[in-house]
Write a structure and sequence with these properties.
- By secondary structure, the protein is α/β, with parallel strands linked by helices.
- The protein folds into two domains: 30 residues, no CATH class; 285 residues, Alpha-Beta Barrel (TIM Barrel), CATH 3.20.20.150.
- Helices cover 39% and strands 11% of the residues.
- It is built from ten helices and eight strands.
- The longest helix is centred in the middle third of the chain and has 22 residues.
- The termini are far apart.
Length: 322
């Protein structure tokens, strides 16, 4: 008699992941683990290789200048907003993609992936009642996956609040159905590019869809594929009424990325949010994914935001214990 695993071997990788989850009692298998069993007693330096920053922080700086300064500050990776390259990634030539990739490499940085996926685009919407618009959105997610891979990244961070809002007449249930359809149509392109799509819960002040971690997990569970995962953002988590470390702990098995920022929309250390408990929780969970600085209020300027955010994070990590 064949074992449960043997009986599903001929299937596709996507079917294999789902079926194996059933065979193992329903547990989902993450596309790539961001947790490790390594131990370190001294908190100083424990996350130094995991700090990243979103490239739009540097506003209109040329990439060479921005990337060099990020590396000088101590960041190891960049999270790229596509609109800093082009409002439509389909217009970006292979030569341009290679140039951006090489500029990051020259600075000693990795491009970890993309965020603000649909910002400044037209004709795309995750929860649209219009079937044609949903098909266009799924196709464009495929375009983004290829663009991401060409830059050396492997994550698409889906924030884009206005391109996921539930429009008038669309219920939450219908929104979930429409969004799941879009993601499922994009999955073959994601798999081919070896890219994970991570959904970002956002504050209810910015969107009416997936405005809590639990709301994003509803969609992830509905899609039920290891290419569809969760990203947690500190500003957004601060609006939930549950301590941030508790949210991180609850969803650790689905989380592939963490963004750090203060509830005032500036960087870590620019407001009142204490990041020691947050980094302590990540340390306790042996989190090995990226910890990416993302800001929305640029008033302090690129230099201060980049430099002081990572300095503060390093002070906080030094206070964590094994």
């Amino acid at each position: 008699m064949k074992s449960p695993v043997q009986s599903i071997l001929p299937q596709s990788r996507r079917q294999f992941s789902k079926a194996l989850g059933v065979a193992l009692g329903g547990a989902m298998i993450p596309s790539a683990s961001v947790f490790s069993q390594t131990k370190k007693t001294d908190g100083a330096g424990i996350f130094d290789q995991q700090f990243a920053i979103c490239n739009e922080t540097f506003r209109d700086w040329p990439f060479e200048k921005a990337f060099a300064f990020a590396a000088e500050c101590g960041y190891k990776a960049l999270e790229v907003a596509p609109f800093t390259v082009s409002n439509d990634v389909r217009d970006v030539t292979l030569a341009k993609r290679k140039k951006v990739h090489s500029q990051a490499e020259a600075a000693g940085l990795k491009i970890l992936g993309l965020h603000w996926l649909l910002s400044r685009t037209k004709g795309f919407h995750l929860t649209s009642a219009d079937r044609d618009e949903r098909k266009r959105t799924a196709a464009y997610l495929g375009d983004l996956a290829r663009f991401c891979a060409d830059l050396g990244g492997d994550k698409l961070i889906f924030g884009s609040p206005k391109q996921r809002d539930l429009r008038e007449g669309v219920t939450k249930e219908k929104g979930l159905e429409y969004a799941a359809e879009v993601v499922e149509e994009a999955l073959p392109a994601l798999e081919k590019a070896n890219v994970t799509l991570a959904f970002e819960p956002l504050s209810p002040r910015t969107t009416n869809f997936m405005s809590t971690a639990a709301g994003a997990v509803e969609l992830i569970d509905k899609v039920n594929d290891p290419r569809c995962r969760l990203i947690l953002d500190c500003l957004a988590m601060s609006t939930e009424g549950t301590p941030i470390p508790e949210i991180i702990r609850k969803y650790k098995n689905l989380t592939v990325h963490v963004q750090v920022n203060d509830p005032n929309a500036q960087g870590p250390g620019f407001g009142d949010l204490d990041f020691v408990p947050i980094l302590q929780e990540l340390r306790d969970l042996k989190y090995k994914g990226w910890i990416s600085v993302e800001v929305f209020n640029y008033k302090p300027g690129p230099e201060r935001l980049a430099k002081e955010s990572i300095e503060y994070l390093k002070k906080c990590q030094a206070k964590t214990t094994a």
